[in-house]
Amino acid sequence: MAGTGQNVYVVVSLSILSVLIVVSNFCVCLLVYLKKALRTNTNWLMVSLAVSDILTGGVLLPVYLIEPTSIVTSYLVCMILLSGVANLCAVTYDRYVAILKPLEYSYRAPKILKRALILSWLLPAIYSLLPLCWNTDPTLKIHKAYMVCLQFIGIVVPYIFITFAYVRMFMQVRRSLTMKRSMTSLRVHKNERRRISSDAKVAKVFSIVASAFLLCWLPIIYITTADIINRYDIIPDALSIVSFFTIATSSLVNPLMYAFLKPDFKMAIRTCFRKSTRTDTGSTIRSLPLASLTVGTGRKYEERLKTVRLSKKEDNSSKENTGSMENSSQCSANCK
Fewer CB atoms < 10 Å away: N or C end of the chain? Predict the structure, then answer.
């Protein structure tokens, strides 16, 4: 840690952010695993995005702080960054199809899930390992072309796609809400309005996540562009540190947005808190001495009720027996 040469405050701040990123995104994965209602196609894509954020907080930031000498770290960091961008694009595409083509989404969702999960991890792994073909020599022209493609395909194209997708989604939601107001059937109107409002809330959540991505990656774009044109003199020393803070912020924003804004996650978290509070209050009430006394008196009272009921039953049965004997004697006397 001392060999990093960084300010102590920077090291402590990034360490705290690293822990928060790992814990919050792990909670997202755990909620989806425990709650069956959360196991939807969109939420599985969110789990994939959360895993990439866990790698950002658990691998990328510690690599920056420790600065290991292994040659694997640069390839690993590149794969983590690209996987985060790819997973965010996959979630955006899933919402794009769900809002703009809702009738097709029901049968296209499983295919989107499988392809998105495979491509979100396979393509970053392949692209990050491509420099091994030319021994990662930065002086070669092919490496410069590789960096240009990395800048364009890995950052610029996702920027354009995410911005275009969310503009189209919000335009579609607004158009749908306007059309549903003129419907004559109140029942259909309510159902469709509920679906559209739910889509609008989910689109709002992911638009905030996408906006955080667009803002937080601006320092990386600037540094990468300066690296491509060999203008290291225009890169401020503090910008590299700021870039790691922005990446960490982007990875931390995702689970917070899911927890506080996404409807199904809010409901799952509320039910978890309600169950935990109920069990806590029940255990505290049982541990009180007054509760034990009331429980004991309640048991005694129930036992007394049982004895009284048994005695009443015995009295009734004895009366019935005596009544039947009297009736039989009367019958015999009459017969005589």
Answer: C
